[in-house]
Design goal:
The complex is a heterodimer of chains A (245) and B (768). Chain A has eight helices and ten strands. By secondary structure, chain A is an alpha+beta fold. In chain A, helix 7 packs antiparallel against helix 8. By secondary structure, chain B is of the alpha/beta class. Classes of the chains: A alpha+beta (245), B alpha/beta (768). The structure holds iron/sulfur cluster (2 copies).
């Protein structure tokens, strides 16, 4: 069953309780954060508007990080992008591939929000959702979440006529369905974050080679991995530039 | 439903907060998961077993000590280690949620910088040279010093400053038993006093700890400088968010585009120091346009005609010239406030010691609420009530308490100041340099230096960050040098610890029992604190220290109990409960309140002479002060200077949490909010580091510039509590700038004794 977060950027007041709850519930190392609050300001004093974006893993349905991961350490489950750090090879492709810049390498392994897979499987909610004092975060079946998001948007239109749902279909449908008080670009979110041909090309051509490398040459992987990765990043860049041209 | 009582009154962990969606709300009890299996069991670097699978989870009841709000929490331990603190869903304040600071509680407990052993000074004051001693020696030594002061000067010559949730034991209980009226809390004269005195003058009532906005039905909220969301009081954020989402109108008056200003329907970027003019003009519109609640005013308000006459000329046009808010905006917002009455109120706010004219400004705030008919009306302002709970029986106190504070129960202002055993009243100048209110902490500093009206020779601080809360730090340093004895009780080696003669390291809130907390609220309640783990290192609970010290200075009659449990059970008996029963009821006892006018029947809830809300104050008139609020201009910043504003960040509290690892990780240093245009003129950009120098040449820094559109050009803003100087604080030491060190002056509020701190100006000095 596809699950999803609701993230209501109308309600979110930037208090960072989610971020702190995530850090303490998951006992993240110093310097590591799965959720970052970014202040957004538009206009010039005193004609201003603004709010916060809640930068975190958006759990894309068609997730670039999953597509590039050679070991299956990143995978989809219940609509969310899970991580299994035990089988992460540390190649770092996910870090480069994510269009939102989410995964980070911590102790040489990929590290990002996995939707509190373990506690959720046990019937609970993610730590951030449990604590959010503003009710800006909810978690549940994606269908229900989308419904709730639409209701919130309808209610919010009285105040913010441009209010809209974001992530219902964007990028193939995000696992974080957002309620936006304004257009996405006003909040520094991509208007159309389509996963597109780039990642498909990557998956089809580059990844199989990487997989062979990882499986075959454990001893050489340290050195080779770095070289291979650098090469692949150059390839990726070339592909990117090719696309833009 | 999220907490299930287990054996021994323990509860099992269940992280589901609410039943939003069925799939998400399946009751999952983590504690029942048992040992990990499969890949989770393969512990390897970077892929640790989650804490809740490493053993049996035990849960204890507590209230959070990361800010004075004290949300009820569940403390989860595994194998004697605190791993997670969660909101207690049964607690009326937390309702199962916590703010970032509350989430950082575990990190506060295991901060490796904590004070670990009692210490006695060996070097000069300020050197920070100590030897570790036994509790026996530390207590005997301190008791001898305190007795020497009492015998030479009288008990009044010992001052006790206390803050945070254990302050009761020193600032209230020990002080009153010992006989010193010079016990003070920063939460009074450095924070709430003007708001409390204004309300008492007008209604006879206390605002109380929890600002009694009746959020549930509120339709229009007005904030004067309150920055909800940055001031992260959990319950207030919850209530605000719900009211906002319901469509309640929001008016925010703030020189800064705060997080909550960004959610407002109307943001009024007022010129700092001119709020009273705006409030008087609002009253002018409400009366002039006949928008006020005439029926309510006839029944419950005294002095209306005087007030109407007083504001009749104070038009929006008059206020526009002062506040820089367009007259039309003043009219529009007054109309919005009135359209929604009585479900419309100005929130009293919290830290209100700004300009020394603060009690008058707060009276102007309450006058608007009275004109809107908000007091005692649903959706307006409710009347809070204290929870009923008898004190532990003790001999009569040697002196009545007057320290006030944000958790104080509504007290009476007696005409006569309480006298200590040797016949001396408070040394803070109450009744001479200011009229009334709780003991003013900052006014007790001078007597330490001058010996006037009588010498203060001893000081005990409990959880007060002495050099990062009281303005005019050079004076405080000088005062500390003059003391015969200085005992500091704290969890961390804060800056002033280096100046203490004796240091008592305290156990944190999860390591101790504490006084029960009877909370004034719409539904009054009693909250408990019990230890989750034994005190770490050689630390002890505050109640234990106060008792041991008390017994040594001859106060054994006041400390008749042997254990904290015995003390707490005795008090709980007065409400038919016990610790055991409280645990079985999710750690909280909720009583019923009397929130609305109708709950008083024919009687008046107001305890003034007229039994109404008094817009005109006889008391003030008799004291030669303005009987109705008057706008008094405040000094303007000289050329090249900005007014120094300060406030909160959602992950920090006062000058207390800057060193907490998790919170320091989220916000390690403060920033200087500087208007973008000004930044361009000054030639600085975001991220540049500058020093700040104030009007008296005091410097603090370096601090990172945050060039932003979000603030007026005539003021700068920084988060309070940074710029601490203490080598023992490995994370906070030297981070950012200290607003307190730049507040070398303050303006005394002649009514409440509050220290107005927004009268300081700074200029930028580029780092060389
Ligand atoms: S806890 Fe909620 S309100 Fe606070 S920052 Fe996170 S999402 Fe926003
Ligand atoms: S508001 Fe936050 S820090 Fe304050 S008591 Fe509640 S959870 Fe703790």
């Amino acid at each position: 069953m596809a699950m999803a977060f609701l993230l209501d950027l109308g309600r979110c007041i930037g208090c960072q309780a989610c971020s702190a709850a995530c850090k303490t519930g998951n006992e993240l190392a110093a310097g590591t954060q799965f959720i970052r609050l970014i202040e957004q300001t538009r206009g010039e004093f005193p004609d201003l508007s603004g709010g916060f974006t809640n930068h975190r893993c958006y759990h894309c349905a068609d997730a670039a990080c999953v597509n590039v991961c050679p070991t299956g350490a990143l995978y989809k489950e219940d609509g969310l992008t899970r991580t299994s750090r035990d089988i992460c090879s540390g190649c770092g492709y996910c870090v480069e591939a994510c269009p939102f810049g989410v995964p980070e390498m911590v102790d040489g392994l990929s590290s990002k929000c996995d939707g509190c897979a373990d506690t959720v499987r046990a019937g609970g909610e993610p730590w951030c959702v449990v604590t959010c004092p503003s009710n800006a975060l909810e978690f549940g079946e994606r269908e229900e979440i989308v419904k709730e998001a639409r209701e919130r948007v309808t209610a919010m239109r009285a105040r913010y006529p441009k209010a809209r749902v974001y992530g219902e279909d964007e990028a193939g449908g995000l696992g974080v369905v957002m309620v936006l008080p304004d257009d996405p670009d006003v909040l520094d979110l991509p208007v159309d974050p389509a996963p597109g041909a780039l990642i498909n090309t990557w998956t089809g051509i580059v990844q199989p080679a990487t997989l062979a490398l990882t499986a075959g040459a454990t001893v050489a992987a340290g050195v080779m991995g770095v070289i291979a990765r650098r090469n692949h990043m150059l390839e990726l860049k070339a592909l990117e530039e090719g696309e833009e041209a | 439903m999220a907490v299930q009582p287990g054996p021994n009154g323990r509860v099992k962990l269940n992280i589901t907060r609410r039943s939003f969606l069925k799939a998400g709300a399946t009751a999952g009890t983590l504690a029942a998961l048992g040992r990990p299996t499969g890949s989770l069991a393969q512990k390897r670097p970077g892929a640790e077993i989650p804490w809740y699978r490493t053993g049996t989870i035990e849960t204890t009841y507590n209230n959070c000590d990361m800010c004075p709000w004290r949300c009820g929490v569940l403390v989860h331990t595994v194998d004697g280690v605190v791993r997670k603190i969660e909101g207690n869903p049964a607690d009326p304040k937390s309702r199962g949620m916590l703010c970032a600071r509350g989430q950082g509680g575990v990190s506060f407990v295991y901060d490796p910088d904590r004070l670990q052993s009692p210490m006695i000074r060996t070097g000069e004051r300020g050197d920070g040279q100590f030897r570790e001693v036994t509790w026996e020696e530390a207590l005997d030594y301190s008791a001898a010093k305190i007795l020497a002061i009492r015998d030479t000067y009288g008990p009044e010559s010992l001052a006790i400053f206390g803050h945070t949730s254990g302050d009761f034991w020193f600032t209230d209980y020990f002080a009153q038993a010992f006989g010193t009226p010079n016990a003070a809390k920063p939460s009074s004269s450095l924070c709430l006093s003007p708001r409390e005195e204004a309300f008492k003058l007008m209604t006879g009532l206390a605002v109380g700890g929890h600002e009694p906005v009746d959020w549930d039905g509120l339709q229009c909220l007005t904030l004067i400088g309150s920055h909800i969301g940055e001031d992260a009081r959990n319950t207030v954020m919850q209530d605000f968010s719900n009211a906002w989402a319901r469509g309640a109108r929001v008016v925010v008056v703030d020189p800064r585009f705060s997080s909550v200003a960004a959610k407002a329907d109307y943001w009024l970027p007022i010129k700092p120091g001119t709020d009273t003019a705006l409030l008087l003009a609002w009253a002018n519109v409400l009366i002039d346009e006949d928008l006020y609640d005439a029926g309510y005013v006839a029944d419950w308000v005294a002095g209306f005609d005087d007030y109407a006459g007083h504001v009749s000329e104070l038009t929006p046009e008059w206020a526009e010239a002062i506040t820089e808010i367009p007259a039309e905006t003043i009219r529009t917002t007054a109309r919005v406030m009135a359209e929604n009455r009585p479900r419309s109120a100005i929130m009293p706010g919290r830290h209100v010691t700004w300009y020394g004219t603060d009690t008058q400004r707060m009276r102007a705030v309450y006058a608007i609420n009275a004109l809107l008919g908000a007091y005692g009306r649903q959706g307006g302002m409710y009347f809070n009530k204290s929870a009923y709970l008898e004190a532990y029986p003790h001999p009569p106190f040697a002196v009545a308490g007057s320290s006030g504070g944000c958790s104080a129960e509504p007290g009476e202002e007696s005409d006569e100041l309480p006298l200590g055993p040797s016949g001396k009243a408070r040394a803070d100048g109450a009744r001479t340099s200011f009229l009334r209110g709780a003991t003013a902490m900052q006014e007790l500093i001078d007597p330490m230096i001058s010996g006037e009206p009588y010498p203060i020779k001893g000081l005990v601080t409990y959880g007060v960050n002495l050099f990062n809360s009281i303005p005019n730090v050079p004076r405080t340093v000088e005062a500390v040098k003059e003391l015969d004895f200085f005992l500091a009780v704290d969890v961390l080696p804060m800056e002033h610890i280096a100046w203490a003669d004796v240091v008592f390291p305290e156990a944190t809130f999860v390591e101790r029992y504490d006084e029960l907390w009877a909370v004034p609220y719409k539904t009054p309640f009693i909250s408990m604190r019990e230890p989750a783990i034994e005190p770490l290192y050689d630390t002890r609970p505050g109640w234990w220290m106060a008792r041991e010290l008390g017994i040594r200075v001859g106060l054994d009659n006041y400390f008749q109990w042997e254990t904290a449990e015995e003390y707490l059970d005795k008090r709980l008996l007065s409400v038919g409960s016990s610790l055991e029963k409280m645990r079985a009821q999710n750690g909280v006892i909720v009583q019923s309140g009397k929130p609305y006018l109708e709950d008083f029947g024919e009687a008046s809830p107001f305890t003034t002479t007229s039994a109404r809300i008094e817009l005109y104050s006889e008391d003030l008139a008799q004291a030669g002060l303005d009987p109705m609020p008057v706008y008094e201009p405040t000094e303007e910043p000289p050329a090249g200077f900005y007014r120094l504003l300060y406030g909160r960040h959602p992950v920090h509290t006062f000058a207390k949490t800057q060193n907490t690892p998790l919170l320091s990780d989220l916000y390690p240093e403060n920033e200087l909010w500087l208007n973008q245009r000004r930044a361009d003129e000054e030639g600085v950009t975001s991220g540049d580091r500058v020093w700040l120098e104030n009007q008296d040449g005091a410097r603090s820094g370096p601090i990172k510039v945050k060039a932003t559109q979000r603030i007026r050009p005539d003021a700068v803003f920084m988060v309070h509590g940074f710029g601490q100087q203490s080598a023992g604080l490995s994370r906070a030491d030297g981070k950012g700038a200290s607003d307190t060190k730049l507040q070398t002056r303050y303006k005394l509020d002649p009514i409440s004794g509050g220290a107005g701190m927004r009268v300081n100006f700074v200029k930028l000095v580029k780092e060389v």
